[in-house]
Design brief:
The structure holds 3 protein chains of 3 kinds.
Chain A lengths: L4 H15 L2 H35 L2 E6 L3 H9 L13 E3 L5 H7 L4 E6 L1 H10 L18 E6 L4 H29 L10 E6 L3 H39 L1 H6 L5 H32 L15 H28 L3 H16 L22 H11 L5 H27 L1 H5 L5 H4 L2 H25 L5 H24 L3 H4 L9 H26 L4 H11 L6 H28 L5 H14 L7 H18 L3 H18 L10 H4 L3 H20 L21
Parallel strand pairs in A: 1-2, 1-3
Antiparallel strand pairs in A: 3-4
Helix pairs in contact in A: 1-9, 2-9, 7-9, 7-10, 7-11, 7-12, 9-10, 9-13, 10-11, 10-12, 10-13, 16-17, 16-21, 17-21, 19-23, 19-24, 19-26, 21-22, 21-24, 22-23, 23-24
Chain B lengths: L5 E12 L3 E13 L3 E6 L6 H8 L7 E6 L2 E2 L4 H6 L1 E5 L10 H11 L7 H11 L15 H12 L6 E5 L7 H16 L3 E6 L2 H7 L2 E6 L2 E6 L1 H8 L4 H26 L3
Parallel strand pairs in B: 3-8, 3-9, 6-7, 7-8
Antiparallel strand pairs in B: 1-2, 1-4, 4-5, 9-10
Helix pairs in contact in B: 3-4, 3-5, 8-9
Chain C lengths: L2 H16 L2 H35 L2 E5 L7 H9 L3 E5 L4 H9 L5 E6 L13 E6 L4 H29 L3 H5 L2 E6 L3 H38 L3 H5 L5 H35 L5 H6 L8 H24 L5 H16 L1 H4 L9 H4 L4 H12 L4 H27 L1 H5 L5 H12 L5
Parallel strand pairs in C: 1-2, 1-3
Antiparallel strand pairs in C: 3-4
Classes of the chains: A mainly alpha, B alpha/beta, C alpha/beta.
């Protein structure tokens, strides 16, 4: 790309305007400069205070029980490591009723010495609850030292921990001396000593630590800094009317966007740099101490590599901010979208913090997250050029795509004019088409909350509420709220009878296809076996009668989910996309409602198939029948109730040849449906393309 | 005579609204405007004036039909069109944080004015529009009259042959409006082709060489004031306008009624 | 002031706010969708990692070991996530293999130190690993744990040979008896989280309404319309104030509720065993009135503070930059509230905002010192009245009414102090 005169003119205009806006500078530069060290200092202060408080903590201790003598003598023996007698932090107190004192917080810990016999007696009469704290079998007959404490009180928790360590150390020392006295040739601590040698250099260790946080810190600072300019630039210009002026200038849209993008990148970069220097300054002065992470010296080549690596990430972040601004009609709107957008940008940069994440996984497909992991790898000295290049390209492509969207947004007349439509006031179907996306999002959120808050004990209850009820109420609410025509909204039309042949053929073909997809996905995103087993168990538990399962897993979802997805959602989205895009999008939305990462792709494929059937037949009924049969077959197969079908297929997949055969059969089924098609009416965006769409 | 600087043929813009369906905001407009001429676009609010001018300035894309600015078609060569065009309206604001001089420099550069000549051009504009006194003050600190001068100066910054003024006087007081009209006349005398839209009859009468009456997206009549008087027999532009609007009203209604039939046979 | 008039104005403000798209999005839609989305992202990341971890087998190189210690290698090989590869070679080569990630760790047996040499067959277990990779560190952990087991078995054999009885050697058992119920622990966690979140949520929920009630009116050109109605300015100011306070408090509570529903699941330990107990109980019913009252107090205070700053703004952008510093100051106490040991002393009870947070904490833990609680109420009442008085004073000034003043709140203060030259 060449830096043409208009690009540079737009760039400097942005920078100049920002520099002359003291209030924005104050908020986005000065405030963070003061605030970040302030937060660190305060955080440090709180932490130090905590540590000091913890050190100054004294533990009030009472000794009780039939073996109180043993307990006291253990407390008085010298500590094996420090050689001290009882830690000065412990304060032996004698109180009237120690149990009451412990409950009311006047003492922190009770050490109760007890014989094995007393213990067993206690378990028998129920005063002692046996549990995870039972001693190991070889200590069956040994006396017990029971530490009573309250884990929600700091002094009590810490005291009990310290005392436990102390008692275990003492026991260790006593055991060793017994063994040595009996004639063990060497002290136990010298037997089979593990000598761990860390082959990583100290720099690599520090780099690995910093590398985890670097992306989060840098991108977070950049996003915050860039947003100050981004919200003001397109959205603010619409509000002030300067966008119209700019758009009638001879500069290309691409040039305007490039100039603005470069300005945002420069500001983001500049502010991040200032903040990093600021942090460095405070760390250098020793005012703030957050460990050695920032002391890492990055060699020049590595620093250059990091810079190159971060370039597409910065471009993507800036591009997303600019795009947000392009879609907003005013500064205020842009500001509103900013919180979720910033959050969305921060989340992928958390990826390198995940333990055990490797670039050689599906993570390489997620922009920003992949570069975060790549940067971490580089910082710990593990450079894999091919994979890093792959990550770089993915993020760069995403940045290019986002920039392209911003250019298109400048050509979108509705966005430029920022005019509100009449539907806001008149309501009805047009308004539903506008609001359908928000409705889908809300439904998704509600479904998550319902799913995670329902006691996952009985699949029948879960399915009836979170599927049956929810997906029936949703279309009902939409129809009532927007006064939608019921027959059209739910596509309650009769298809051509020939279609049913295609459906019957398609169901088994669809299952084979989906199984193939599942195998394919498993190679990219491996499914944890534990999760697969628990899912199977949860979905189709052994103890529920088969006909119950057929109702709650096949019949109810088949009807309710179709009413929602192929009913009102398809109806609401139909004018926004071309038929092919519509099938894909509704399918993916359907997949997203299955939440689990491993079920999304497979259910999305099923969703695409069902949407395609609905679009071809103009009717919801074939999709309903297909869905019910599909789920019923899966239930029957899992119970080994189908001759010639092995339930293991669903865990391990079928062979490739079966899946391919399934795909082939599916094509045949669709050919039949195509032959008898009665397409869904009124699909596709109304166009500037010459008003060519049918208005029948 | 050579090719006119501005020409449109059957220019049409259809907006799609969810509830009302298609709305033909501009419907088959044919216009011509030559150098050294002010063509007035006269119409009520919502008649399609702004939409027409926005299509000419490439902010909006025509649904069908064509428009040429200095031989460049608006859809095929939007950049060349904008290079040859200055657009001024009540909605084209200035950047508040930069000075008048910087504003002019910015618009020269962003409009691809020859690089070496930018500074001279800026000086020339400052001189001829009387901006000298406040050339180095920030735009946000200027009075509305000063802003207007800067705004016109930036419209002609890159010396385009075609100028579009979309209801420029709508928010101005009388003195500023008169000043603006004088400037526009001066620009005409320098050979610019000027499109000027307004809903104020007297303004059109005084300023425009030719007047196009636009109503419901259609051009009802085009001609000099005298020609319009001759065709209608009315003297005042207001009467002329009402005459055309009235006579077209029934046929409009008829057209609406006929529309379903159009798809028939 | 006529309460009926205020009520009319107040209802008008609330109604317009509920019809304002941006406010509905900010205070209802975003929390409703955001928390579940975050929840889902976390859930997906966990299951993704789990799948990854299962798909990856850790390669551990092992140099040949004597027969005596073969069980150690066998136990390592028995772990299905570990793949044992025989690997003999110089240190350097092994280190390179590990650094390149082709092997996570390398284990060999070397001669024991002097003290250990007395025992025949004794050795040192030398492990090469790299601290930068989790896989390598967990391989080391695994080897250490298995070595412990192997050592214990070996010593146990010696013990029976030497004739040391189990009972003598065993000595005594140490048993931890946590008296705290799972409800106590839940409350402990909630007492840390809820006050902090309430504070953030109230400030967040009041932010947009505060700007909307002032700068928003100016942007929409309705400010002057409102100022020319017959109601006294103080009634208008009061109605606006109550509207912002209502949104702050109600929006804050809604957010809190939405978050609580999402958090339940996280507190449940993502469905694994230990978490089941954690969610028992929750916020005690007795604390709910205190939380509601505390939220209302916070709402009243935050609304007054924000209005004082926002009233100078001529547009949304200005309003935002004017409020932000106040917003930051309000949130600063959050830093100190992370400390569970912060006590609700009478001194802290006099500090606005902090005291309400501590009051909420006390309510959840079921322990509010009477005097501190009383001082909190007095301190908050005084600061709310002071803030409202300031807001009223500011709104009566002409420059504020006309929006002609420059420099925001501080400009106003300096001008007022310098001699009230505020004629427009």
């Amino acid at each position: 790309m060449r830096l043409t005169v208009p690009i540079r003119a737009v760039f400097w205009l942005e920078i100049q305007s920002l520099l002359r806006d003291p209030r924005t500078l104050l908020i986005s530069v000065v405030l963070p400069i003061v605030l970040i060290p302030a937060i660190l200092i305060a955080g440090n202060w709180v932490e130090e205070r905590e540590t000091r408080a913890a050190e100054a903590l004294t533990f009030r201790l009472a000794v009780e029980g039939e073996r109180a003598d043993l307990a006291r003598s253990l407390l008085n023996t010298q500590a094996p490591n420090s050689g001290e007698s009882l830690d000065s932090r412990f304060q032996l107190v004698s109180v009237e009723d120690p149990w009451e004192a412990l409950a009311s917080g006047r003492i922190d810990v009770i050490l109760e010495g007890m014989d094995a016999e007393g213990w067993r007696q206690g378990v028998r009469d129920g005063s002692i609850e046996p549990g995870a704290t039972d001693p190991p079998p070889e200590l069956e007959g040994a006396p017990r030292m029971r530490l009573h404490f309250h884990s929600n009180r700091t002094a009590s928790r810490e005291g009990a921990q310290a005392l436990r360590t102390r008692l275990l150390d003492t026991r260790e020392a006593r055991r060793d001396s017994i063994l040595l006295a009996a004639g063990l040739p060497a002290p136990p601590e010298n037997i089979l000593v593990v000598e761990a040698v860390n082959v990583a250099s100290p720099e690599a260790m520090e780099g690995a630590l910093l590398g985890r946080f670097l992306t989060l810190i840098l991108l977070g600072l950049m996003a915050l800094g860039g947003s100050a300019l981004a919200t003001d630039t397109l959205a603010g210009e619409k509000e002030r009317g300067t966008l119209n002026t700019l758009l009638t200038a001879a500069a290309r849209r691409q040039e305007i966007i490039s100039g603005k993008l470069l300005a945002i990148m420069a500001v983001a970069f500049g502010i991040a740099l200032v903040q990093v220097l600021n942090l460095w300054f405070f760390l250098g002065l020793g005012i703030v101490d957050i460990g050695g992470a920032f002391a890492v010296r990055v060699p020049t080549e590595a620093a250059l590599l990091l810079l190159v690596l971060y370039l597409p990430a910065v471009a993507l972040v800036s591009g997303i901010l600019l795009l947000t601004s392009a879609y907003a009609r005013s500064y205020k709107e842009a500001q509103l979208y900013l919180t979720p957008v910033l959050l969305g940008l921060i989340i992928p940069s958390l990826a390198p913090l995940l333990p055990g994440i490797s670039l050689q996984s599906a993570i390489i497909l997620i922009p920003i997250a992949n570069l975060g992991v790549a940067v971490r790898d580089v910082m710990m000295g593990d450079v894999q050029p091919g994979w890093i290049l792959g990550a770089w390209i993915v993020t760069a492509l995403a940045a290019a795509w986002v920039t392209r969207r911003s250019v298109l947004a400048l050509e979108d007349e509705n966005l430029i004019l920022g005019e509100r439509s009449v539907e806001e006031h008149t309501g009805g179907e047009g308004l539903f088409r506008r609001r359908v996306v928000v409705w889908i999002l809300v439904l998704w959120a509600v479904k998550i909350l319902v799913n995670f808050n329902l006691p996952f004990t009985d699949i029948r209850l879960v399915s009836l509420v979170s599927v049956g009820l929810l997906f029936t109420l949703f279309p009902l609410a939409a129809i009532l709220r927007f006064r939608l025509p019921v027959r059209e909204a739910l596509a309650l039309r009769m298809p051509h009878p020939g279609v049913w042949i295609g459906v019957l053929l398609g169901v088994p073909a669809g299952i084979l296809t989906v199984l193939g997809v599942f195998q394919l996905v498993d190679t990219v995103i491996p499914v944890p076996t534990e999760m697969l087993e628990s899912l199977g168990q949860a979905l189709m538990p052994e103890e529920i009668p088969l006909w119950h399962l057929l109702i709650v897993i096949a019949l109810v979802p088949g009807i309710a989910e179709e009413l929602t997805f192929r009913g009102v959602i398809l109806h609401g989205l139909r004018r926004r996309l071309t038929p092919v895009a519509l099938a894909l999008v509704v399918g993916i939305i359907f997949g997203m409602f299955h939440f689990s990462l491993f079920r999304i792709p497979t259910t999305a494929v099923l969703g695409v198939i069902l949407t395609a059937v609905t679009l071809l037949t103009g009717s919801i009924f074939p999709a309903m029948v297909w869905h019910v049969l599909n789920n019923a077959l899966a239930v029957l197969a899992s119970r080994d109730a189908l001759p010639g079908v092995d339930s293991q297929w669903f865990a391990e997949g079928v062979g490739w040849e079966w899946s391919l055969a399934g795909v082939g059969l599916l094509l045949v089924s669709f050919a039949i449906i195509w032959r008898f098609r009665t397409p869904y009416p009124d699909v596709g965006p109304p166009g500037p393309p010459g008003g060519a769409m049918s208005r029948t | 005579m050579s090719e006119p600087l501005v020409r449109t043929r059957d220019l049409t813009k259809v907006f799609y609204e969810e509830s009302r369906g298609e709305v033909r905001a501009v419907d088959g407009v044919d216009l011509i405007c030559n150098g050294g001429e002010i063509l007035g676009l006269l119409g009520a609010n919502g008649a399609g004036k702004t939409t027409t001018l926005r299509m000419l300035s490439t902010i909006l894309r025509p649904t069908s039909g064509e428009a040429w600015i200095v031989g460049h078609e608006v859809r095929n060569a939007p950049e060349q069109v904008r290079e040859n065009l200055g657009f001024y309206s009540a909605s084209t604001a200035l950047y508040p944080k930069i000075t008048a001089r910087e504003t002019l420099r910015f618009f020269c550069r962003v409009n691809r004015y020859p690089r070496g000549k930018v500074e001279d051009r800026v000086e020339e504009l400052i001189e001829s529009f009387g901006i000298r006194d406040f050339a180095d003050s920030r735009v946000e600190k200027l009075s509305s009259g000063m802003k207007q001068k800067v705004s016109i100066a930036r419209t002609v910054a890159h010396d385009p042959p075609v100028l579009i003024f979309d209801e420029p006087t709508v928010a101005l007081d009388v003195l500023n409006a008169i000043e603006l009209r004088r400037i526009i006349e001066r620009l005409r005398d320098r050979g610019k082709a000027i499109l000027f839209s307004t809903h104020i009859m007297s303004e059109a009468e005084q300023l425009c060489d030719r007047i196009a009456i636009i109503h419901h997206g259609r051009i009802l009549a085009v001609g000099t004031l005298q020609e319009l008087r001759d065709t209608t027999g009315h003297h005042y532009l207001e009467e002329i306008f009402v005459h055309f609007a009235r006579t077209r009203e029934p046929s409009e209604a008829q057209g609406e009624a006929e529309r379903p039939g159009e798809t028939g046979p | 002031m006529d309460p009926g008039q205020i009520w009319t104005l107040y209802r008008h403000e609330i109604r317009s706010a509920l019809r304002e798209r941006s406010i509905v999005i900010a205070s209802i839609l975003v929390p409703l969708i955001m928390y579940p989305t975050l929840l889902w992202v976390g859930f997906s990341a966990v299951s993704f990692l789990q799948g990854q971890a299962e798909a990856v087998t850790t390669r551990v190189g092992v140099a040949p070991v004597p027969e005596l210690h073969q069980p150690l290698v066998d136990s390592l090989a028995a772990d299905r996530r570990i793949q044992v590869v025989p690997w003999e070679g110089p240190d350097g080569a092994a280190a390179t293999e590990i650094a390149r990630g082709r092997m996570e760790a390398w284990m060999e047996l070397t001669p024991p130190d002097q003290a250990g040499a007395a025992m025949e067959g004794n050795a040192q277990v030398r492990v090469l690993f790299t601290g930068v990779r989790e896989g390598s560190r967990s391989a080391l952990d695994r080897i250490e744990a298995l070595t412990d087991e192997h050592r214990n078995r070996w010593i146990a054999e010696w013990r029976s040979e030497l004739g040391v009885a189990d009972a003598v050697w065993g000595d005594y058992a140490v048993v931890m008896e946590d008296q705290a119920t799972s409800e106590d622990i839940t409350r402990f966690i909630l007492a840390l989280l809820v006050p902090l979140l309430t504070l953030i949520m109230v400030a967040l929920a009041a932010f947009y309404p505060a700007i909307d009630a002032t700068a928003g009116e100016r942007e929409r050109n309705t400010w002057e319309t409102l100022m020319t109605v017959s109601a006294p300015r103080s009634a208008i100011a009061t109605a606006k104030y109550l509207y912002v306070a209502t949104f702050g408090a109600v929006g804050g509570l809604l957010n809190l509720a939405a978050l609580a529903i999402s958090l339940r699941w996280i507190l449940a330990g993502a469905g694994n065993g230990m978490g089941e107990e954690l969610v028992q109980g929750g916020i005690p019913f007795s604390a709910i009135p205190v939380i509601v009252a505390g939220t209302a107090l916070l709402g009243l205070f935050v609304a007054a503070g924000m209005l004082v700053f926002a009233v100078f703004a001529r547009n949304f952008k200005e309003g935002q930059s004017m409020i932000t510093p106040f917003y930051v100051v309000i949130l600063l106490p959050a830093l100190f509230l992370q400390s569970p040991n912060l006590e609700f002393t009478t001194g802290l009870a006099a500090v606005p905002v902090v005291n309400v947070a501590l009051l909420l904490r006390g309510a959840i833990l079921g322990d509010i010192p009477f005097l501190a609680g009383l001082i909190t109420l007095i301190s908050m009442a005084v600061s709310v009245v002071a803030a409202v008085a300031l807001a009223q004073f500011v709104m009566r000034r002409e420059e504020v009414l006309l929006g002609t003043g420059t420099g925001g709140f501080w400009g106003f203060i300096t001008r007022t102090l310098r001699g009230r030259r505020t004629e427009a």
